């Protein structure tokens, strides 16, 4: 019986718990609230991992991960290094191991498919699991597994829909459209209201819904009959999509400017047909809307780059922004009041801490010269400078790309001092393990005496 929900055990991976367990914390409002916690052995290993991190020595982290291949924190830390080096396959495997470690610790009463279970996000272990899920979603999308990425988004959101610690509501629409789950997206936007702000008030989801309706109309489009009147040809799915886009533009006009700028910044300068957007430039008056607009433009711009989508957006936005007061539908006026009241809030802490690398596929990569290792068979060796700089002054570290990565980030990186710290950390780890073995031996002897 498969126990995991997101990952699947690979050949060579151990079975069973790896030191992280899930416990039932309490039952609230009919929901069973669980939390992750570490056992004593894993906690000891975690202290060693923190010592390696604090040493700022990449070799210590690599050595730790080699001896503890299923330590979640170590795998995530090494995955970040491999992502910066562009080694996405290795990073994806390490991230999947981290998620697998947590999933092996699921509580017997924890049903991943149930709706009445929650994950308490107050412990470091819970936060680490959510971060692993975020990176796993990104890795799935990079491999083209957008449907799997969407399903993982749904699962992560269901673990704590009232708080949405991963800010999934700001970009789940992108994965739904990429996975061609148009009907699910429209239903989700209309019905999901567990978050303090209903999904239908998120600007990105309103634009995504309009695009989903347009794609649904395309997939079901049939050649018109010769007896159809012009009015009959215009009615149908296209009208629904245009109405949804009109509502999105009326409620969130500044989002259009952000989206078009992300698609191609030259359009607003070179194409005079977009001059009307000048009135929609600037802040919306809501910090939350501005944050969502920034995320939406960066993540979903690729979906709006088609000429047909841009023409549809331009003609619809131009018409809506030129509406007179008498032309505004009454239902949109009422909804505008509700949206303004709901979104007149500051972004929550997860949104404030959200970085571009958390919701896009962009990973800041270091120049290739940082990873060039010195070849031993080089025929010509460059002349050594008379006064070579020390490692702390920025001297290159040949033959160790990970060390060069840290040196580029930390000007004061000193490999000799960090090597000494590594040796001290290893000695401390051996002392702790010896103490644990002595305690276990003493317990066994005490048990025999009893």
What is the secondary structure topology, with strand pairs?
Blueprint (H helix, E strand, L loop, with lengths): L19 E9 L2 E8 L1 H16 L2 H10 L4 H13 L3 H16 L13 E3 L4 H19 L3 H14 L12 H7 L3 H10 L11 H17 L10 H5 L2 H15 L1 H11 L1 H6 L16 H14 L6 H15 L8 H14 L5 H5 L2 H4 L41 H9 L5 H35 L1
Parallel strand pairs: 2-3
Antiparallel strand pairs: 1-2
Helix pairs in contact: 1-2, 1-20, 2-3, 3-4, 4-5, 5-6, 6-7, 7-9, 8-9, 9-11, 11-12, 11-15, 12-14
Describe this structure in words.
Helix content is about 55%, strand content about 5%. It contains 20 helices and three strands. It has helices at about 40-55, 60-65, 70-85, 90-105, 125-140, 145-160, 170-180, 180-190, 205-220, 230-235, 235-250, 255-265, 265-270, 285-300, 305-320, 330-345, 350-355, 355-360, 400-410, 415-450, and strands at about 20-30, 30-40, 115-120. Strands 1-2-3 form a three-stranded mixed beta sheet. Helix 1 runs antiparallel to helix 20 (about 415-450), helix 3 (about 70-85) packs antiparallel against helix 4 and helix 11 (about 235-250) crosses helix 12. The two termini are about 40 Å apart. The model is unreliable at about 230-235, about 370-400 and about 405-415 (pLDDT under 50).
Descriptive labels:
450 residues; three-stranded mixed sheet; mainly alpha; 3 strands; elongated; 20 helices
Question: What series of H and E elements makes up the topology?
Answer: EEHHHHEHHHHHHHHHHHHHHHH
- Let me know the largest β-sheet: 3 strands, mixed
Number of E-state strands: 3
List the strand order in the largest sheet.
1-2-3
- What structural class do helix, strand and pairing data support? mainly alpha
Instruction: Tell me the distance between the termini.
Output: 40 Å
Number of helices: 20
Uncertain segments: 228-236, 370-399, 407-413
Overall shape: elongated
Beta content? under 5%
